Hints:
There is one protein chain. This protein is of the alpha+beta class. Helices cover 27% and strands 54% of the residues. The protein has helices spanning 15-22, 25-31, 124-149, and strands at 2-11, 35-42, 45-54, 57-71, 75-84, 87-101, 104-116. The protein has a seven-stranded antiparallel beta sheet with strand order 1-7-6-5-4-3-2. β6 and β7 form a beta hairpin. The longest helix has 26 residues, at 124-149.
Amino acid sequence: MKLKLSGSETIDVSSEFLWNAIIDPKILKECIPGCHEMNEFANGEYKIVLNLKVGAVGGSFDGKVKLSDQNPPISCKLHLSGGGTLGTGIGFANIIIDEKVKGTSLMSYEGEGEVGGLVAGVGQRVLLGVAKHLVKKFFSSFKTNLLKNIP
């Protein structure tokens, strides 16, 4: 089952500060919903362990996150893949950072993914709702973690 997501968030930091946060594995680990482990195994590539709940079904996933096409501090591509007790998933997100005014940036994302297995059985509408919820949780946590790290 294929899913597409896009959106944007205004974040009150410079584009350079935002860029450094989005490529920081410590911040990403804290912000990715359900992420319990994130270990670098190659430059810009990480193994992750997630515990997630989709609908009434929960499970664990082992996966990979890779950052590519990096154009600091403007854009990058985030690749995700994994599998676990609920099924499998693969996807990517293009991330664009645009500093609108000094100290305020707009981070836009456009991504698509494909899931299979038990998790796909909950239906596209439910999965899209869960995906939007996870993105909202990511940005909420991301903004909180940015505020902790502003010098």
